[in-house]
Amino acid sequence: MINNLQDTITLNNGVKMPGFGLGVFKVEDGDTVINAVRDALSVGYRLIDTASVYGNEEGVGQAIKDSGIPRDEIFVTSKVWNDQQGYESTLQAIDESLEKLGLDYLDLYLIHWPVSGKFKDTWRALEKLYRDKKVRAIGVSNFHVHHLEELLKDAEVKPVVNQIEFHPHLTQRDVLAFCKENDIQMQAWSPLKKGRIFDEPLLVDIAEKYGKTVPQVLLRWDLDQGVMTIPKSINKNRMIENADIFDFKLTAEEVEQIAGMNINERTGSNPDDF
């Protein structure tokens, strides 16, 4: 259980990863992302999640450098994009990401989407990067159960993380159960469903009960299921509000009630069709 912004969860390879962090999907490179990451670090965030396709690795790296916080106290995730997948091209892709970030290593490197016919070769490259200590941990993103099963058939290193779209309208219980059974940590992207569920009566009622906001209830719901979460924001006050979730806990009944809102509705693509 994580009890503050800097509390960690121990991954299946022993690496400790903050359970709560900042996502920077679609945050513009330059001053916008530099300010966002700088603000996040200044209020205590220690996990920053980016990707090559976001086009903002340079700004993320600049903010980390400017922060003055020791490198080993900040956990940095990036991801290999679909057109970079394959063995050799993945080895090249991480060098490009590291150069843009201005870092010697990544804490976590993910396969961004399960590109059919390529993700197993991509995984072999990630295993090499892990052995070569260019990354401290390797994982996947947007993998369904059948993708994970296919990967695990030949994997020499088990993924530590599966980062998926996860919110009360898309609970993906099968993926969550499989990850728990196989000691793969699940992490939620789009945990707030871009604000599209903030007026759901159940969530409003629970928020009122605890004197919290609906976003805070949603993020607490992630943690209460053992799911890491990376809400995106460029607003410092919102970052502080998002992280103000360590003074309450949902009941098991409330966790299940919220899960009962599932309608299998995505804000992003289905990995099987992407």
Automatic annotation (TrEMBL):
The keyword Oxidoreductase applies. The record marks K79 as: Lowers pKa of active site Tyr. PROSITE patterns: ALDOKETO_REDUCTASE_1, ALDOKETO_REDUCTASE_2, ALDOKETO_REDUCTASE_3. The active site is at Y54 (proton donor). Keywords: NADP, Oxidoreductase. InterPro entries: AKR, AKR5G, Aldo/ket_reductase_CS, NAD(P)_OxRdtase_dom_sf, NADP_OxRdtase_dom. It holds the Pfam family Aldo_ket_red. PANTHER family: 2,5-DIKETO-D-GLUCONIC ACID REDUCTASE (PTHR43827), NADP-DEPENDENT OXIDOREDUCTASE DOMAIN-CONTAINING PROTEIN (PTHR43827:SF3). This is Glyoxal reductase. The lineage of its organism: Bacteria, Bacillati, Bacillota, Bacilli, Bacillales.
